[in-house]
Structures are given as C-alpha cells and as structure tokens.
Amino acid sequence: MTHEGASSITGAFLALAGANAAAIGFISGLGEFVGYSLRLLTGYITDKTKHYWTITIIGYIIDMLAIPMLALVPHGGWVLACGIMIAERAGKAIKKPAKDTLVSFAAVKEGTGKSFAIQEFLDQIGAFVGPVILFIVMLLRGHAGVADGTSVQAVGNAASATHSVINSSAYLFSSYKVCFAVLGIPAIITIVLLLFAKRKFPNPEKFEPDTEKSVGKIKLSRGFIFYIVAMSLSAMGFVDFNLVTMHTAKNGLVSGEILPLLYALAMMIDAFAALFFGWLYDKRGFKTLIVSTVIAAPFAILAFTATSQAALICGVILWGIGMGAQESVVKSAVADMVPKERRSTGFGIFQASYGLFWFLGSWLMGWLYDWNMTAMIIFSVVSQLAAIPFLWMSSRPRYCKS
What we know:
The protein is mostly helical. It has 2 domains: 204 residues, Growth Hormone, Chain: A (Up-down Bundle), CATH 1.20.1250; 183 residues, MFS general substrate transporter like domains (Growth Hormone, Chain: A). Helix content is 79%, strand content 0%. The longest helix has 36 residues.
C-alpha cells in the first residue's frame, strides 16, 4: 500500500517540484539500478551474518519512512525528493534478500509455491488499495477546497488564467504532500507488524533443517545458473505496463479516466494468478513456469495490435498472469534450488540479474516502439519463449547439484 500508493504519484510530484523529464528518467533508472544491484552485497552480508531479522527491519525502516518524508519536500526541492527516492530504493535493496529468505524458512511448513503465492497475493492487493486510498484523499481534499471556496477556476482574461494554472499546480503539489503523509500510516503499521513477527518468531531459520553443504564458498549449481539465464531472458522481453498504458492512451482505446482501472485489472489478475500458479508449483514443480511462460508470452501481440477493447483486455489479462507467476513461482524456485545457508546470496544474485535485464529490455523495447512496433512485439515474444529451453535444463536432476 505504501510503496505502490507512492509510485502512482511520484512522477507527477517530481515534475511539480521542478524536475524535467530527463531528470525524472535518470532518477527512475538510477533508483532501479541501486535497488537491484545493491542486493548482491546485502544478500552476501545476510548469509555471512545470519542476522535475517535485523537486516530486514533496517531495510523496512529506511524503505517505509522515506515515503512520508516526501511530504516535507518544499516547492522546488526536486533534488531533495530524488535523494529520498534513492534512499527508498536502497532500503528495499537492503531488506529484499533477507525478507525473501525469511519467507523461504516459513515456507518449509506450508510449501514454497503456496507461501510465496500468498505473499504476492497480499502484495498485489496492497498495490490496488494504495492508489485507491490516494484517489479518495485527493477527492476529499478537492471537495473540501470547493466547500471552502479555495478551488481555482480559469476565468477572465489571459492573465487570470495563467494565475489560475499556477495556483492549481501549487494546490496539486500540496495535495500530493498530504498523500505522502497519509501513506505514513500503513508505513508505521508495517514496521509494528514486523517487530511483532520478530518477537513471535525470533529464530525462523529453525523451521528448516540445516544442510550438510559447505558454506565457505558461494558456489551455485549449473541448474541455478540456467534458471537465472531463463528468467533474465523472460524479464528482458516482459513489457513494462507503463508502455502498455502509454500506447493505449496514445491510440485512444480507452479514455484517460479508465486507464487506472486497466492497471487495477492487471493487479487483480496478478494477485489471483500468483495464488493459482503457486499452488500448481507445489504440485508440478518447474513445469508450472514453462506453462505460465507459454500462456503469457503472446500478451504483447494483443496489447499492441489491439483494435478493440476486448482484445486489449485479453492482453492485459495475459500480462497479469505472467507477472503473477513470475512474482510468486520465481521466488519459490530460488528457495528450492539454493541451500538455506547461502539462500540470501542466491536471492541477491538472482534479483540483481533479473532487475538488470528488465531495465535493459524496457529501454530497448521503448526504443523499438518508436522505431518499429512489429520489431518490438517480436522481440518481446521471442525473448520470453527463449527462456523455455533454459527452464527445462534448470529442472534436470544432473544440473541441480552444486
């Protein structure tokens, strides 16, 4: 709720704070780079120290408290806002390998597929509710402004219209700051629940028995390396939803007011797909990833060649299925393939590679979109299907030994 709620307005907030498009693009890319590359280090440190809870809590505190701090940014303070956003990404990088490792310990009792699926389901419910909360806050604030007579109307001559635009921007900037402050509520609740969980389960690693494998070297099985290659290829061809919404708005397939509902649909499909494929993974193993990849791969064909809303919605549904499977089953597979003593390192390596190729693929497909739409669609589909042979090899017993 906190993170996705903020993500729905941070781009517009930075623009109102004085940042130009180039600065916003650079900071977004830098934030993702920090958020993923730092996991190599934090995963390694977590495995070395075994302080799973401590590192998770530190990361969450930085991550969660950075969001409401944006409410303190003054007008024109976009550099400060960018610094806070980078800190938020760093907090996520600190917590992620340790957090996923904690979940993997608890998953021993329930099944990795089911456990990570529940995590993803709750994550996507929050991703839906967070922006809705901010919509309500903005709506109530707008009504309050009208009731107080403070809403600005562009009437009269050109000078008054310009004054109206300036005042409207200032009012919107102020409203966004209120939204960030409101997001401090779920942020604080998150930290409180985390501390409660630590108190109730101080040694979650005991859920899973120790292995007899050496922990002195970070040596990963060939199967895991094939798996990293497979999911990196899949990530490289998985079109970011921002490109989908831009294309949809550009071609007038749905009105601007409906676009948030399109994203909400994708999040809901993501949530329930995560539950289904997580359950299926516990039953069928790696075959689940191959099936979900085949199902989701054609989504770009529907989303970017659609001439009807029905075709577009089908494309969005396939996108949600692919994302749901990746966010739940992908983590489950890492937990099953890497021994507990070096699992945080495994998560860190995997997530760094996944994030890097997601970034490179998104950048390349954005360029291909402007150059040749067909080439972009072919690249997307082929990259995802190219992951299937590597997924098959990663599941073979002879490649699963360290």
